[in-house]
Amino acid sequence: MRINKYISETGFCSRRETDRLIEAKRITINGIVCEAGTDVDPSDVVLIDGVPIAGKAEPVYLALNKPIGVTCTASKEVAGNIIDFINYPTRIFAIGRLDKASEGLILLTNDGDIVNKMMRSENGHEKEYVVTVDKPITQSFIEEMSSGVPILGVITKHCDVFRINDYEFRIILTQGLNLQIRRMCKALGYRVQRLERVRIMNITIDELDKGQWRELAGDELIALFAQL
Description:
Elements: H1 3-10, H2 15-23, E1 27-29, E2 32-33, E3 46-48, E4 51-52, E5 61-66, H3 82-86, E6 93-95, E7 103-109, H4 112-118, E8 127-133, H5 139-147, E9 150-151, E10 154-155, E11 160-163, E12 168-173, H6 180-187, E13 192-200, E14 203-204, E15 213-215, H7 218-226
């Protein structure tokens, strides 16, 4: 089994984070510094920073209504990191990101496999946001946002955009470019004043106050896994 899959299945961290640990030479296998793509057997001794990895923990799936100012990183060196904020008793990590200036739904887990599946952009998983901008929304803005905006050297994918009032709109994305909504609005001459994610696939922040988290219910998980 590849080392990044092996570690993600223990719940220690995602495959992507494992690759970062490998690059930083923080993982050893049988006393030898691990290289990318290395295979590992059950009998091998795998250490991270010289410490053995614990066995696979019970899966944890949480929904958090993230406040503004919390940073979606597992790095303890970052003030206001999401792991310290949620203070969960076992090791978990965020699925994807929501920038520090944004708020709303983010999922956390110790299941590296689900992270890998949900982060594959080609799967087209829906994420819904409510956005407030700095000037009145025009029909032209709605049409351009939905049909595709040139940012980061690409044209964004078609998306659904709905006007709520003069300054607010709802948008459903199936891709996750860096700061995508903020960049799209800026390209069209608007500035985002408030950005809240309200849904990821079938999971919503309904009845979840700002800063609160909850465990995902069984029926939610069944519906979530069916879409992966």
